[in-house]
Amino acid sequence: MFEIGLLRLKTKKNQLGLFFLAFIAINTVIDYLNLPYPEMAAKYGIALVVGNIFINIVMSVLTSVMLTLSIISFEIKGSETKSQNLGFISVLFGIMTYGCTSCVIGFLAAVGISYSVVALPFAGLPYKFISLALIIAGLFFTRYEMNKPCAIKIK
User: Which end of the chain has the least Cβ crowding within 10 Å, N or C?
Assistant: First the structure.
């Protein structure tokens, strides 16, 4: 069924495009809140900026595909895939770690949770790789769930 879902992606171009635009905007805002691109280029070089933008594009494409496949699975099977939330979890992970850290620390402190972030090198690039790994894991899990046969209980 995963192969059928991939074929149906062609009919969902508008949905894919909207998801992509939403996630590229979110990832770009997170990057800006962490360290704006001009400052990142001055501090680390243009290669890191290009790498961040490339990873943003890859993450946005993969998340868009994963969410659209989940919608296609719902249309075919009548049930959503459990992995559809991994794309959102990776964005939340990015916001809570290398994006707007001061906002998150203040919010969590208001509800009684102490939280600190260790500064990683290269403007938080290791966090972005962890987010990318979560999205890739979500795609593999989506594939597994789409190919899993429906459970029918016989008494």
Answer: C
